[in-house]
Structure formats: C-alpha cells, structure tokens
C-alpha cells in the first residue's frame, strides 16, 4: 500500500474566505501515484474548515451570510471564549462547516459526484494556516 502526506498552506488576506483547493488535491493524487484508494483532506486549525460543495460565487456569499447569521463576529463581547481572543465565531463556523472530507480515488482521479469541489473555509484569516492531505491506496 502506498501512503502520501502533504500540507497545503494558505494565507487568506481577509478574516473569512473560501479557497477552491481541488486543483491542489488533484496534484497531490498525481504525486502520490495512487490509482485506487482514499484521499483525506482536513483543516489543521480549529477556526478553519475543509468541505465539499458547488464552485459558485453566489453560493459562497450565501454560506457567509448564513454563517454570520448563526454566529456573528460582532459584537465580540457576546462570546465567553473572547475574554482573551476575538475568534469565538470562527470556532463555531468551523464546527458547522466541518473539519475534513474523504474522497474516493478511482483510476487515479477524485471520484466526485456532479459539481463537487473541495474548499478550504477560512473563518479567522490574515495569518498562515494549513490543511493536511493524506492519501492511501494502491
Ligand atoms: Zn479561539
């Protein structure tokens, strides 16, 4: 069995943002040489997510609005976590959007359903953060 590990680094210039990392993950699969297996991608920070959805900018705006409705950043004083920090909302948003995705690899490619893409969701950006890619298979 082959095993492959890589860290993808990001520095989103705004507090919140979504990055399509599908091309990066596809590159990892080529590098891994795995033709049949599984690909895990997880955020390595508790204020960021990795999720799968549509690569459509209107939907991304909808996600941001929806998440701000559930856990607004302001006023930061509404959260007990924010006695020493200001990112309680980012922890909550990450929990809703999820830590990781697992995608099947078939014939050397991501075995996606229609319109699926992989995104890194940043909720407390403006600093260097990363996601882990782990691939196992034959
Ligand atoms: Zn925090």
Please give the structural blueprint:
Elements: E1 2-10, E2 17-20, H1 22-32, E3 37-43, E4 48-53, H2 57-70, H3 88-97, E5 100-106, E6 109-110, E7 117-122, E8 129-137
Antiparallel strand pairs: 1-8, 2-7, 3-5, 3-8, 4-7, 5-6
The protein binds zinc ion.
The total count of strands amounts to 8
Strand content range: 35-45%
**Spatial order of the strands forming the largest sheet:** 1-8-3-5-6
Q: How is the biggest beta sheet arranged?
A: 5 strands, antiparallel
Mean pLDDT, rounded to whole units?
98
CATH arch. level architecture: Sandwich
Q: Hetero groups bound? A: zinc ion
Helix percentage range: 25-40%
Q: At the fourth CATH level, what is the homologous superfamily? A: YjbQ-like
How many distinct folded domains? 1
Radius of gyration, whole Å: 16 Å
Q: How are helices and strands ordered from N to C?
A: EEHEEHHEEEE
User: How far apart lie the N and C ends?
Assistant: 5 Å
Count, helices: 3
Global structural class: alpha+beta
CATH topology, what is it called? Jelly Rolls
Shape: elongated
Task: Outline the low-pLDDT stretches.
Answer: none
Just give the CATH class.
Mainly Beta
């Amino acid at each position: 069995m082959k095993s492959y590990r890589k860290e993808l680094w990001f520095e989103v210039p705004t507090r919140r943002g979504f990055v399509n990392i599908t091309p990066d993950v596809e590159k990892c699969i080529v590098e891994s040489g795995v033709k049949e297996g599984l690909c895990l991608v997880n955020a390595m920070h508790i204020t960021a997510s990795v999720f799968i959805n549509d690569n459509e900018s209107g939907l991304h705006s909808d996600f941001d609005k929806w998440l701000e409705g559930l856990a607004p950043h302001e006023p930061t004083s509404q959260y007990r976590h924010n006695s020493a920090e200001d990112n309680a909302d980012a922890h909550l948003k990450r929990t809703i959007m999820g830590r990781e995705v697992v995608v099947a690899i078939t014939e050397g490619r991501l075995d996606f359903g229609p319109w699926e893409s992989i995104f890194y969701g940043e909720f407390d950006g403006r600093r260097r953060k990363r996601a882990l890619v782990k691939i196992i298979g034959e």
